[in-house]
Design brief:
alpha+beta, endopeptidase fold (from Nostoc punctiforme), eight-stranded antiparallel beta sheet, 28% strand
Length: 216
């Protein structure tokens, strides 16, 4: 009886490990025959968005000509870093890290995230998100690395993000609910930790210009 119980306990302990191994293997293949890994699906302001197949597929590291690390092709982080590098010439002091590492909980709302050289705003900030901001999503049960995207446009009650590697059947564009309550701005997705923004040229705090920021 004790031997059988030990066998059952051992099997129960191994089951989660086996499930994780299967998940890791499945998410490294391309289950969508409509697209090939590396195929361009979209673009935002001239910066290409590529198809990645399974969410854990990796096609090697993408480096700029001078060696600046843009990330692992064609993960979400690679698109975000390549976007800021190609569009704005922005180099992040810390060139590594998963998507979840882009939001630093130690930084106060509106403070400087030194690892990314960007201002950081918490979901629920007095400063609303705007186009070109970097949006950070927290990890989830099936995504322990988190997710990052670029805000493509902002409306009065929704915003659109552009993203790479949303999943083999996901879309490069997604709309999120945006609400303004008690002087603060909230994105409806509870996984959104906040948004990062390039500081203006002279390093001063950005100001709100509704005529430019919102698209109706």
């Amino acid at each position: 009886m004790r031997k059988r119980l030990r066998t059952l306990l051992a099997a129960g302990a191994l089951l989660p490990l086996a499930a994780l191994a299967v998940y890791a293997a499945v998410t490294r293949v391309n289950p969508n025959p409509q697209h090939a890994v590396g195929e361009q699906l979209d673009e935002l302001n001239g910066v290409a968005i590529y198809y990645n197949g399974g969410v854990n597929t990796v096609q090697g590291r993408n480096l700029a000509q001078d060696g600046y690390n843009l990330g692992l092709r064609y993960q979400c982080v690679e698109f975000v870093k390549r976007y800021y590098f190609e569009r704005h010439g922005h180099r992040m002091p810390d060139t590594y890290g998963h998507a979840k590492d882009f939001f630093d909980p130690r930084v106060s709302d509106g403070g400087m995230n030194a690892r990314r050289a960007m201002l950081q705003f918490t979901n629920g900030s007095a400063m609303p998100p705007q186009a070109d901001d970097l949006l950070v999503f927290a990890p989830s049960l099936l995504n322990r690395y988190g997710h990052v995207a670029i805000i493509a446009s902002v409306g009065s009650d929704t915003l659109e993000i552009a993203q790479q590697n949303p999943g083999p059947f996901g879309s490069s564009r997604e709309s999120l609910a945006l609400a303004h309550r008690d002087g603060r701005w909230y994105l409806g997705n509870d996984k959104v930790q906040g948004w990062l923004r390039l500081p203006i040229a002279d390093g001063q705090y950005p100001t709100l210009d509704l005529s430019v920021r919102f698209i109706h």
